[in-house]
């Protein structure tokens, strides 16, 4: 919720003061960091219960994160190309 609200504030507010824009960027980064730490905690907890699968779970987590980043960057590039920079 922190990241979504921060990014919507940046996207929808035309005359945002620099300080509030900086706080919104920090909020967006905090939202991503919180999600990353939560996933790492879940993988660590599951690794305790299923030790033989620990390496596979971490690899799957990293692979999924990379695929999500590639898809996000691809969609972002497509939208900037067709809509233009704002």
Summarize this structure as a short list of keywords or feature phrases.
elongated; 86 residues; mainly alpha
Describe this structure in words.
- The chain has 86 residues and is mostly helical.
- It has one domain.
- 85% of the residues lie in helices and 0% in strands.
- The chain has helices at 2-12, 18-49, 54-83.
- Helix 1 runs antiparallel to helix 2 and helix 2 runs antiparallel to helix 3 (54-83).
- The radius of gyration is 17 Å and the shape is elongated.
- The model has no long low-confidence stretch (mean pLDDT 93).
- Pfam families: BT1.
- It comes from Nymphaea colorata (pocket water lily).
Task: Briefly characterize the structure.
It contains three helices and no strands.
Topology, element by element:
Elements (H helix, E strand, L loop, with lengths): L1 H11 L5 H32 L4 H30 L3
- What can be said about the biggest beta sheet? none
Order of helices and strands: HHH
**How many strand elements?**
0
* Uncertain parts: none
Q: Quick check: average pLDDT? A: 93
Individual helix count = 3
* Percent range for β-strand residues: under 5%
Determine the structural class based on helices, strands and strand pairing: mainly alpha
Cα-atom Rg, whole angstroms? Answer: 17 Å
Query: What is the overall shape?
Result: elongated
Number of structural domains = 1
